[in-house]
Amino acid sequence: MSNDALIVEGITKRIGAKKIVDDVHFQVKKGEIFGLLGPNGAGKTTIIRMIVGLINRTSGKVHVNGYDLDSDYNEVLNNIGAIVENPEFYGYMSGYKNLLHYARMARQVISKERIAEVVRLVHLEDALNQKVKTYSLGMRQRLGVAQAILHSPAILILDEPTNGLDPKGMKEFRNYLRELANQGTSVLVSSHLLSEMQLMCDRFAIIEKGKLIHIEAIDEAAELEEETLQEVTFTLNNSKKANDILAANNKIITSINENQMSLSLPYHDIAEINRLLVEAGCDIYEITVTKKTLEDRFLEITNKEKEVVKS
Hints:
Layout: E1 4-15, E2 18-29, E3 33-37, H1 44-51, E4 59-64, E5 67-68, H2 73-78, E6 80-83, H3 95-105, H4 112-121, H5 137-148, E7 155-159, H6 167-182, E8 186-191, H7 194-200, E9 203-208, E10 211-217, H8 218-227, E11 230-236, H9 239-248, E12 253-256, E13 260-265, H10 270-279, E14 284-290, H11 294-310
């Protein structure tokens, strides 16, 4: 049995002579949070709309939990929960009555126990009986996720879900998505907020001008970071002595002042530099590593892609 909750095979969307999405392939594993990264207008929302059947594909295939979107449309819908736009609810009704209303419209029987379960998962117990018009944006997002997972879908699909959320709301959102993934629900989330995606996702794909140009696991990016040169700053008591010691050991210092010096070196060389300085009698007060962010990685990958296109 496949370990993939979602398989996207060569989906393309053409409007006239223009390709909005061009031959995109990827898989989302069961229990994984997978991110689609790219600037606004890159094609992320079009990809999501094709996956959930809101717009037609020009070509390509979509499989959800083993079902084909074309031949098993109803089964695919039963296995997808999605928030493509901002979640809409009846403001004059309570959160609970909204969920009860959606449960009654579902293709399968959804018990009150299931409603209580998803409410606990998104931490809305205290506000459940309040009218939705009193909810903050973050609370509405949580209610939207609760509604989308009422029928226990194999995959939850979210388009720019953290737009407008404050830092506290973003953190809460990340936490309950991780809880969902830990319980086996896959999550496909699109965003242009790279710092949030770095904290949220297990793997990410970069979409640029309708093309998927790169897929990478977050932990792979971290491993790569350890092998690449990074800016490392040592705060110490005697930078002149440190400079002499490192020069004698063929180490190149990129900047130096009275009590700080910086070097460009791989992560695993930091311990060696520290040992050389301590053995030479230098007191080390602090070591600071300027780590690459997902934004740095994104720019590195997209710039390489541009160079390939130019050549």
